[in-house]
Automatic annotation (TrEMBL):
It is a multi-pass membrane protein. InterPro entries: MFS, MFS_dom, MFS_Efflux_Transporters, MFS_trans_sf. PANTHER family: CHLORAMPHENICOL EFFLUX PUMP RV0191 (PTHR43124:SF3), PURINE EFFLUX PUMP PBUE (PTHR43124). Residues 2-379 form the Major facilitator superfamily (MFS) profile domain. Residues 380-409 are annotated as: Disordered. Keywords: Cell membrane, Membrane, Transmembrane, Transmembrane helix. The chain crosses the membrane at residues 42-63, 70-97, 103-121, 133-151, 157-179, 200-223, 235-255, 267-285, 291-313, 334-353, 359-377. It is found in: Cell membrane. GO terms for cellular component: plasma membrane. CDD domains: MFS_NepI_like. PROSITE patterns: MFS. This is MFS transporter.
Length: 409
């Protein structure tokens, strides 16, 4: 793995750690700033709101900034946000600091994905992007448990300090190892927004919101499911979440090569298998070993979908992929909020702790329907281009687009 990809993976590791460690430290944070645990839970929403707002806004502001310089600026903002979180004296300032820390999240992943895809040959672009995403999955195995343990032993502020240090390491790694990638002549906010107007980009983002909503409908309530239905103790849930992270890592490793070979079939298979796994978990959640096996598989399928969705958006945005790639992470956070809300409605309606699995399966199937819709529209568009050309082959631009979709770049 080139050192530049390793530097991007370190960035993803820091982002994954700060995003999820807050959830494990809510009791300590609530006690430290004098609010209730549910009230402290709004800090998670503050970070997610920062991601949703920051991905398109910061990407648009930096549309003419060379990619490497933009990565450094965004990483610097990430460090500042986490230092501010560690120093915040009250809930209001901590809320603002978490929002600030979330702002560069989507833009970092979006710009990083574009940079990673251009570090290698086109037929290996999806594998390069998946290597960057490995940092996020490893964070669930190592970073989040370590950050949670550090916060519980020394105080929650030390967890944010540790993330800031990771951010500084990432900043230095990017500065040393990532090569300069100058923007093209047509770069700019208008060019990026025109690419966002592509119907395939819109369908891809909708697929991410709905399909990943199924994943988050279950992930949001995984701990209470395991403690109330599987019978796993509170002390053991951290290990189970680490197992979930192992599944995510395996899914990411598998998705890269498959996406390079056949993008849309990989996406279809991932959503279908996610739906099947969620239905299975509805029945296996009551038995420890089958439940743990299913949880690992759900983690694998959740991360398996990430790479083909990211590569599809970049392919369809063509020469202006950065905002589309960044907006994908806004879509993930909308999926997080929407999936958690719908899963909570099912529980509140008295359908039981396992009911979010059925809600999640329905959302995954709906996401699969959107993905198929995009595929049918794309085939129809290419047939029209072939017919208009008056020959048996596609025009050059159409051929390039088709190859880009097939190979994920």
């Amino acid at each position: 793995m080139p050192l530049a990809l390793l530097a991007l993976a370190v960035v993803a590791f820091g982002i994954g750690t700060t995003e999820f460690a807050t959830m494990g430290l809510l009791p300590q944070i609530a006690d430290g700033i004098g609010v209730s645990v549910p009230h402290a839970g709004n800090l998670v929403s503050a970070y997610a709101l920062g991601v949703v707002v920051g991905a398109p806004v910061l990407t648009g502001i930096g549309a003419r900034v060379p990619h490497k310089r933009l990565l450094l600026l965004l990483s610097g903002l990430f460090v500042v946000g986490n230092i501010a979180s560690a120093l915040a004296p009250n809930f209001g300032l901590l809320f603002a600091a978490r929002f600030l820390a979330g702002l560069p999240h989507g833009a970092l992943f979006g710009v990083g994905a574009v940079v990673a895809s251009r570090l290698v040959a086109p037929e290996r672009a999806a594998r390069a992007v998946s290597r960057m995403f490995l940092g996020l999955t490893v964070a669930n195995i190592v970073g989040v448990p370590a950050g949670t343990a550090l916060g519980q032993q020394l105080g929650w502020r030390f967890a944010y300090c540790a993330v800031a240090v990771i951010g500084l390491i990432a900043l230095a790694s990017l500065a040393f190892f990532v090569p300069d990638q100058p923007r093209g002549r047509e770069s700019g906010i208008r060019h990026e927004l025109r690419a966002m107007g592509n119907r395939q980009v819109a369908i891809g983002l909708a697929t991410a919101v709905v399909g990943f909503g199924g994943f988050f409908a279950v992930y949001s309530y995984l701990v209470p499911m395991l403690t109330n239905l599987t019978g796993i103790s509170d002390a053991s849930t951290t290990l189970v979440l680490a197992l979930y992270g192992v599944g995510m890592t395996l899914g990411t490793l598998i998705a890269g090569p498959l996406t390079d070979r056949a993008l849309r079939p990989t996406l279809y298979a991932g959503l279908a298998l996610l739906a099947a796994a969620l239905v299975t978990f509805y029945f296996t959640v009551h038995s420890t070993v089958p439940a743990l096996v299913t949880v690992t598989f759900i983690g694998a399928m959740g991360s398996f979908i990430t790479t083909p969705v990211q590569m599809l958006l970049m392919a369809k945005a063509k020469n202006a992929p950065t905002m589309a790639a960044a907006s994908n992470h806004s879509a993930f956070n909308l999926a997080n909020a929407g999936g958690a809300w719908l899963g909570g409605l099912a529980i509140s309606a008295g359908w039981g702790w396992a009911s979010p699995n059925l809600v999640g399966a329905a959302l995954a199937v709906a996401g699969l329907g959107l993905a198929f819709t995009g595929g049918f529209m794309d085939q129809g568009s290419r047939r029209s281009e072939v017919s208009a050309s008056g020959r048996g082959t596609m025009p050059a631009r159409a051929s390039v687009s088709a190859v880009g979709e097939e190979h994920g770049g």
